[in-house]
Write a structure and sequence with these properties.
The complex is a heterodimer. Helix content of chain A is 41%, strand content 20%. By secondary structure, chain A is of the alpha/beta class. Chain A is globular and about 90 Å long. By secondary structure, chain B is mainly alpha-helical. Chain B contains six helices and no strands. The chains are: A alpha/beta, B mainly alpha. At the A-B interface, helix 2, helix 5, helix 6, helix 9 and helix 12 of A face helix 1, helix 4, helix 5 and helix 6 of B.
């Protein structure tokens, strides 16, 4: 049945409820559990079961539980809702038009000869006014036709994909968007394996084979060159998802789908540049381009002359800053400051507890002393907050941006400058006087760095600060790690400065980073330090719960975090922690329900709400209206989470190590789970989240296994850095 | 004394206003100057409220405002540049149709031509929009390491 949308009752990320009218004018509601965003005036072909629905006032409505909807062109009386929602007609005049022209209304609106007739219906007694309005409505109608035709073609395309086994509407939308024209069906027949970069291989191959077969001119679809190249795309899809940007031939063959001839696939892939060969490695072409651009820009920065005019006795200036700030550097730290100040491109590497932040503070102050300006950035919002606080004084507050925010501001600045508009004073600026400091640089992926580097002009300096013992970024590549491996422009801090009696954690972390299994005392009870609670693998989850209680976990103010490898462990633990509740809870969208005292984590950057991905907090309370108040880390007052933000907030009794990067907690529990994710880098990252207490839970064998296993990521950047 | 039908009265005066070929008075920031319009229609200032409250009047004035590239009553912000361009053609034709009553056939033909141009312009705009969206999507894919062969 064709239904014209008259109003939107509810809209969700994964469905909507709208009310509408059919051609006979009958009113009904439609509920569809797929991501569509209907607009008033649009017409949909709806298939589903019709039933009755009573609203909160007891009124009956016909409601269709739609199995299938498809956009279609408005015809006949279904044009009514569109007419009503234009700004010039309104319901009364729309109804006159429908009554006067009925099913022929759409034709009349398209016909310039009909303008006088339409005007006479709109305003029977006021012909001039009516004529004017009719002209405007016809123009609106024609403007809308083009958009409507696109929408109908889009839905026809979705139907083609669905008929060929693709039921993922999000992927279908992406494919439509990529093809970018109303002849998308024909484009897909010409390139039947286009979807191999977007869909899983099974779905992409099924679609590709059916399209090849449907062409009628293909003898052997299984051996078709498009399929072979598509198999290479599928292999890259798998490898890129793990962060690799390159692979050895052996590894690449392992990633190619098993029902494809690997040698023929690589041969075809090289021919059409679905694969790029560079020495012993095969590289993903998109990633190869990105890495090439990043390497070139970094080389350009490194080749520049130093922008500040430092005296020969730079150490004296550094000493003055030490006195002024009250910070005392070690010789190693002082040498690092002096070295990095003289490099337009610098890399400061150091593990936990070596004083990287202290070095940054002094270096930044010296750079500013000689007339420079510093812009600081981090990948994660939480890390940016920490950096801001660590480098600020009451006399000199400093603001660190997230990379995403910094890039956005720089784009807005450029846009205003290009338009000759004035730029707000608080927009960050990067010029020949600037040093850009990127902290927690091990978290920075290739694409994000590329974005930032496009805004770094000639003459600006760049400093990476990080710890290459940490996990590589969530996104592509491992830029910081590759720069450390190359060794150019690197200042290395090795001396752990915290006394072992103050905290053994940095020493334990350093041992793990060097590949040594630390000797950990057996856990005996809540105390500062690093411990092992030995228990069989199958008892880890149970031990986790007991330990959590022992360390004061039921009171979130005790600042305790479980840092797990497996998503399943995180979800199960969070769910278990909420079982004991009797208090009122509020549902935070699809991810969690919370009550007062629950620790939570924000799972997405939400600048408008002042929230960042990975930001931790505690639910302070829930008011009688169900609004959730949260005390976020580093804030002095509680904030009420907006309704929209609630969907991006999750419980944080346990979180994954990747989510925990950039954060810290007083006490951290680390379950040693049997998973390939448990590597030396993973363990090191998890241990370094703890400020006072860390307890590993599991077997000594798992600890040994974790330390011996390396997180491996293959990239093409090292090749580009040597070019 | 006959009770005044405000809506009928104002719409009739608007019709005469349109017939006379006058343009809606505008404020400096491109909005309809409702107060001056009342004066032009010979209405008391107290009638300005009806231009905001009575839908039939508001919608009619909005159609005229749209014609003149003015902001609609109750609207904020500026018209998109593309909208201004395509609408400007309609205004010219409508004015011509009014000024030269004896060339009604010519005016009709011009109106048809303009609608055809509008149709073609919108088709082209839509094509460019899709192409732009496709290029942006392809750039996003490159930022994820994937170079599509479209």
């Amino acid at each position: 049945m064709e239904i014209a949308v008259t109003s939107i009752i509810a809209q969700f990320n994964n469905g909507s409820i709208f009310s509408g009218k059919n051609a006979a004018g009958d009113k009904m509601r439609v509920r569809f559990k797929e991501p569509i965003w209907p607009v008033v005036g649009e017409v949909y072909d709806v298939t589903g079961e019709s039933g009755e629905f009573r609203d909160q006032w007891g009124r009956k409505h016909i409601q269709i539980e739609a199995d299938y909807v498809s956009r279609t062109q408005a015809s006949g009386k279904l044009i009514g809702p569109w007419l009503e929602q234009t700004k010039f007609i309104g319901p009364t005049r729309a109804s006159r038009l429908i009554k006067a022209f009925g099913d022929d209304l759409v034709n009349q609106l398209s016909d310039p000869e009909a303008v006088a007739k339409i005007g006479a219906v709109i305003e029977p007694k006021r012909t001039s006014l009516g004529h004017k309005i009719a002209g405007v409505v016809q123009a609106q109608f024609i403007s809308n036709k083009a958009k409507e035709a696109t929408a109908v073609a889009e839905w026809k395309f979705f139907r083609l994909l669905e008929q060929n086994g693709v039921t993922d509407l999000k992927a279908s939308r992406q494919l439509w968007r990529l093809i970018g024209n109303v002849q998308a069906e024909q484009s897909l027949f010409a390139k039947p394996y286009l979807a191999a970069s977007i869909l899983g291989w099974k779905a992409a191959d099924h679609l590709g084979q059916r399209l090849l077969f449907g062409r009628g001119d293909v003898d052997n679809p299984k051996a078709h060159p498009e399929r072979l190249a598509g198999a290479c795309d599928a292999a890259w899809r798998k490898l890129l998802a793990e962060g690799h940007t390159a692979a050895s031939e052996v590894e690449f063959k392992q990633a190619i789908p098993s029902n494809v001839n690997t040698d023929k696939a690589i041969e075809e892939g090289l021919k059409v540049r679905a694969v790029v060969r560079d020495g012993d490695l095969l590289r993903a072409p998109g990633a190869a381009w990105l890495e090439g651009q990043v390497a070139k820009r970094l080389a350009d920065i490194a080749r520049q002359s130093v922008s500040r005019n430092y005296p020969d006795d730079l150490m004296h200036s550094i000493g003055s800053i030490e006195q002024e700030t009250g910070l005392t550097l070690t010789d190693e730290q002082r040498d690092a400051v002096a070295d990095l100040l003289r490099r337009p491109l610098g890399v400061l590497q150091g593990g936990a507890g070596v004083g990287k932040t202290t070095v940054m503070k002094v270096l930044i102050s010296v750079f500013e002393l000689f007339g420079g300006e510093v812009v600081m950035a981090c990948v994660a919002g939480k890390a940016a907050l920490t950096l801001s606080r660590a480098t600020s004084t009451s006399e000199a507050p400093r603001l660190a941006y997230t990379m995403a925010r910094l890039v956005r501001f720089l784009e807005m600045r450029k846009s205003k400058e290009d338009a000759g508009e004035s730029v707000p004073i608080d927009y960050p600026k990067i010029d020949t006087k600037t040093l850009v400091v990127l902290d927690e640089a091990s978290m920075c992926d290739t694409a994000s760095l590329y974005q930032l580097l496009t805004h770094i002009p000639d003459g600006a300096h760049f400093l990476f600060v990080g710890d290459h013992g940490q996990l590589p970024p969530v996104g592509l590549g491992r830029v910081f790690h590759d720069l450390i491996d190359k060794g150019d422009n690197v200042a290395n801090l090795t001396k752990v400065l915290r006394q072992a009696e103050d905290s053994p954690i940095p020493y334990v972390a350093a041992a793990v980073r060097e590949g040594a299994v630390p000797e950990l005392p057996e856990y005996q009870g809540d105390a500062s330090g690093a411990f092992l609670l030995e228990c069989p693998q199958e008892d880890v989850r149970g031990a986790l719960r007991r330990l959590h209680g022992d360390l004061g976990g039921t009171n979130a103010k005790n600042d305790l975090l479980v840092c797990a490898a497996l998503r399943e462990t995180v979800n199960t633990f969070n769910a278990e922690m909420t079982k004991w509740r009797g208090d009122e809870t509020v549902r935070l969208g699809p991810l969690a329900s919370v009550t007062a005292g629950d620790p939570v984590v924000c799972t997405r950057n939400r600048y408008a709400d002042g929230l960042f991905n990975g930001l931790l907090g505690i639910v302070d309370g829930i008011d009688p209206m169900g609004n959730v108040a949260i005390m976020w880390d580093g804030e002095s007052d509680v904030k009420f989470a907006s309704e929209d933000a609630l969907g991006d907030i999750d419980l944080a009794y346990a979180i994954t190590c990747h989510k925990a990067q950039g954060s810290a907690a007083k006490k951290v529990i680390i379950p040693l789970e049997r998973t390939r994710l448990l590597t030396r880098e993973w363990l090191y990252t998890a241990i370094t989240r703890a400020r006072e207490t860390v307890v590993l839970v599991g077997t000594k064998e798992m600890l040994v296994s974790a330390v011996s296993k390396r997180t491996r990521r293959v990239t093409g950047l090292p090749i580009e850095l040597t070019k | 004394m006959t009770h005044r039908n405000v809506e009928e009265d104002i719409l009739t005066r608007l019709d005469r206003f349109v017939k006379s070929g006058d343009q809606l008075p505008a404020t400096n920031d491109g909005k309809v100057n409702v107060k001056k319009l009342c004066e032009a229609l010979g209405l008391p200032t107290s009638d300005t409220q009806h231009f905001h409250r009575k839908d039939a009047i508001k919608l009619a004035v909005n159609a005229l405002a749209h014609h003149q590239n003015l902001l609609l009553i109750g609207a904020r912000g500026e018209l998109a540049a593309a909208d201004k361009v395509v609408r400007a053609r309609i205004i010219t034709t409508a004015s011509q149709a009014k000024e030269d009553a004896q060339a009604a056939t010519e005016a009709k033909a011009q109106y048809s031509a303009v609608l055809d141009e509008l149709r073609a312009a919108n088709d082209e705009l839509e094509r460019l929009r899709l192409e732009n969206s496709s290029l942006k999507a392809q750039i996003e894919m490159i930022h994820n390491g994937v170079m599509l062969r479209i």
